[in-house]
Amino acid sequence: MNSQAPAALGPLASSQRILSLDALRGIALLGVLLMNVESFTGSLFDVGTGIAPAQAWPDRLADGFVYIFVQGKFWTLFALLFGMGFASMSERARAAGVDFLPLYLRRSVGLLAIGLIHALAIWSGDILVSYALAAFALLLLRNAPQGALWPIGALLNLMLVAMLLLSSLAIALVGQDAADLGDFAVDQALRAREIAAYAQGSYVQASALRWDYFVAATLPSYWMFVPMALGLFAIGAWFVRSGAIVAPARYPRFYAALRWGAGPLGLAITLIGLAVDSEPVLTGRTLSASDMFATTLQMLAAPLMSLAYLAWIVRALERGARWPLAFAPAGRMALTLYLMQSVIGTVVFYGYGLGLWGEASRVAQVLGACVLFGLQLAFARLWFARLRYGPMEWLWRWFTYARRPALRQPVLPALP
Prior knowledge:
The protein is mostly helical and 416 residues long. It is 71% helix and 0% strand. Helix 6 runs parallel beside helix 9 and helix 7 (146-174) packs across helix 9.
C-alpha cells in the first residue's frame, strides 16, 4: 500500500459524481424532513406513534400519508446510500493503490463529531451518530465476499425484527402490565421537561435537556439502530460492488423484483400493522402486544419499501425522466441541508426562537416541510453555480483528506 494515501486520493470532482446517487440522496432528504418536522413541533416521544384519532380529517390524511409512505422509509434509504458511498470510496482507494483505512477512519470520526454536535447543541433526533457508529463496524465487511453482503444485511435486520416479535408474544402472554414502570417514569419526566425547555425555555435549558435525553433515551436506542444501519450499509455496498447502481440495465429482474415484489410486500405489511394498531405507543404505562406488534411490522416493512423507492427512481432515470435529477443539487449537499433543517426547525418552533412548539397542525407541518425543502433546493442550485461543495461537505472532506479542497468552481476562459 502507498504510505502517502491522503495525498493520492481526494474528493470526487463534479464530473465524476454518479447523478443517480445525488438524486436519490435529495429525494431521501425530503422524506427525512417530512418525518422530522413532527418532532420539531412536539415531543420526540410522540413521533411515529401512528395516526392520532382526535385530529380533523385533513390532519388525519396527512398523518396517514406520512405513517404509511414516509415513516422509516427514508432514513433507511439514506443508510443504503451511505453503504454505496463506503463501497465507492473503498473501490477508488483500491484502484489508486491507496491505504483506505486512515481516510475512512477520519471520515467516520468527522461524521461522529458532527453528529454529536448536532445531537447535543441543535436537535435531539439526530441520526448521524448512529450512522457513524455503524460506519466503524462496516470496516469488518470491507473484504467480505460480494455475495455475502445481502445475507448479512438481511440477517441483521431480521434478527431485530425477530427479537421484537418475541417481545410482542411475551407481552401477549404476560398481559398489558408488562411495561417497565421505571422506564415509564423516566419517559414521563423527560416529556414534562420537553414542554418546559423546548416550548418556553432558553437555549441553555434546551441544551441541558438535549444532554439528558441523549443519555436517557438516545444511547439506549443504539442497540437497535446501529445494527439496522449496518445491515443497510452492507446491502448498499452490494449495489456498488455488483455494479447494480451504475449499470442497472444489467439487472432487470432484480430491479423488477424490488419494484413489484418488495414494494407491494412492504406496503401490505405496513397496512397490516395499521390494522393491528393504528396508534402504537411504546412509552405508556401499559405496553400492549398490539403496540409492539404494529411497530415491529412497520420496522419490517420500511426497508422493503425504501428498496422499492430506490428501484422506481432508478427505473425513471433509465427511461430518461428528468424529474429525479431536479433533486440532485440537494443530494450533493445533503449533510448541510439536513443540519440546516434542524436549525430552522428548532428556531421556528422552540421557545428560544419563534416559540411555535405544539401549534402547527399536521397539514401545516407537511406543507411547511415541502416549502422549506423547495427553498433549500433553490439555495443548493444557486450555491453550486459558483461552488463545488456544500459548506459542511467541504469541511468534512477537508478533515477526511487532511487537506483543503478547492471550493470555488473553475472559471472557464472566455470564448474568443
